[in-house]
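INFO batch 0412 | record 1 of 1 | parsing
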Amino acid sequence: MFLTSQNYRQEFQSLLRTEARISLAIAFWGQGAQVLLENTWSGERLRLLCNLGSGGTNPGVIRDLLALRSERPGLEVLTLDALHAKVAVGEQAAIVGSANVSANGLGFEGPECVGWQEAGLLVKDHSQCLQMQVWFDELWQQGEEITEEKLTAAEDRWLKNRGSRPLTATKLVEASAASLKNRDIHLAIYRLTASDQALVEASLANKEAQRSDSPEIRNAKLDFFEDWPDYSEEPLPKDVPILAMRYGPTKRVTGLAPWVRLPQLDRAFVSFNTGTEVSLIMLGNLSSVVGMSLSTEDSKILAKRLKPWIDEIFDGQGPDAARCLPLDEFLKWEEKMASGD
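INFO prediction complete | emitting tokens
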């Protein structure tokens, strides 16, 4: 039986529901896959071979599946980094096809996956199912136990892969929440104005930049943060876009603009007032955020969206509070507000 995107998931669920013993050699797994298995499979044994090492599998899903083993003793999970197959084998039927149980496969990881076309074959010939089972058993012998070390490494690769997936929006404010998640964009919200001493030090940093051999540094529009050291609880990340904005005493969000750190220009000085060392973190203005524009007018639109969330995270904090959080945190909050939870 030929499978397409219209019936692939239905037949896959039917296999999980009706077969007592199932072998899954499916490379990549995405959010929602663990729920599918938990709600659909109730057989005796399910062996799951995934590819955790290449960055295409969501490690959070694998963590959930490993935790599920305590409730489903017949569930076994191994990884094989050379795996690229998508094969599900039961005792009575098997599915061979293109679909992962992941983004771009059976439709998990949210709306960004809609529209991808999959194809496969549902096989009910007993001899062919036996051949597939022999093939799977040989791969299973090559599989490796999933350790915490493997999961941690996979999380880094997963986020890097998610951050580089294609975008369709050209404007940041028009991008969907699903397409912005895991992009490693940060929000830096500050409240105090700079001290006179910090302004002097920033001027010296500007002069240093003008003498730089790097055109990117020499021609950059610069700004800075005062007293935001790298050892703070929420440090300013390097090499990623930072949407910086001021949350003033009247609870207005202003000055929202994209920046990136220029660590080679960072400075430190001893405060005349306190006698302690103060950091000066230098920033260069960005013309785009992961390839999307953010005009002055669009910044005002984004600031309006951000304000209720900022009101909440700064509730009860003093005037000197500053926060640096991933954009994902705001997107989660906005999604929660939209759902009414």
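INFO post-check: The chain has two domains: 2-163, 172-339.
INFO record closed
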